[in-house]
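Action item from last meeting closed. Structure (189 res):
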């Protein structure tokens, strides 16, 4: 198998690191060589957070360069737009339709770009989903990350039960039920 490159992007507090852990653990359980790299921006202040997950028969580097990502899993619209140069030709973006104003927008120095989903869709294969509403339906707005993992999981060859068992083993026990619901809501899209 060739290497699969997945870039997970969001802002601090959205659970990009947990999502990369779940994905990495699933791939390890399936016998793949896996490399995960976390790039922390100003995550404590709502800044960009990027993680790379690469898996395959043999993975030599954890870094994903421009034009190399098979999938960009974006937890926020502007972060999806910023990550676009990393998507390879024929790649796919899965994006939450939520927008979170970055500091330049909050201070009034810039305006939040409009019509991001349409701009992305004009260039690449995009699946946009209101993961925040589904996370709230599952019982916790912070489960956006797991809703998106569920949607992505549906489009892989890894069995559903492998995803579920890994999810249950990765999240803290008191959050298992809400995360299972969030995963299933994403998987059902």
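Sequence:
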């Amino acid at each position: 198998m060739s290497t699969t490159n997945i870039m997970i992007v969001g802002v601090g507090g959205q659970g990009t690191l947990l999502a990369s852990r779940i994905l990495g653990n699933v791939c390890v359980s399936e016998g793949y060589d896996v490399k995960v790299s976390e790039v922390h921006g100003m995550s404590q202040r709502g800044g960009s957070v990027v993680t790379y997950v690469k898996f395959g028969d043999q993975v030599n580097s954890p870094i994903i360069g421009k034009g190399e990502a098979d999938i960009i899993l974006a937890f926020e619209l502007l972060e999806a737009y910023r990550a676009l140069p990393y998507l390879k030709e024929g790649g796919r973006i899965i994006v939450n339709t939520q927008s979170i104003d970055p500091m330049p927008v909050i201070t009034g120095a810039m305006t939040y770009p409009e019509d991001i989903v349409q701009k992305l869709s004009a260039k690449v294969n995009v699946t946009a989903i209101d993961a925040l509403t589904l996370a709230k339906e599952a019982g916790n707005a912070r489960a956006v990350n797991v809703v998106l993992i569920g949607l992505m999981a549906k489009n892989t060859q890894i069995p559903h039960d492998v995803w579920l068992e890994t999810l249950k083993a990765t999240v803290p026990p008191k959050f298992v039920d809400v995360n299972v619901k969030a995963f299933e809501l994403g998987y059902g899209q």
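Note appended to the action item: The chain has one domain: 4-187.
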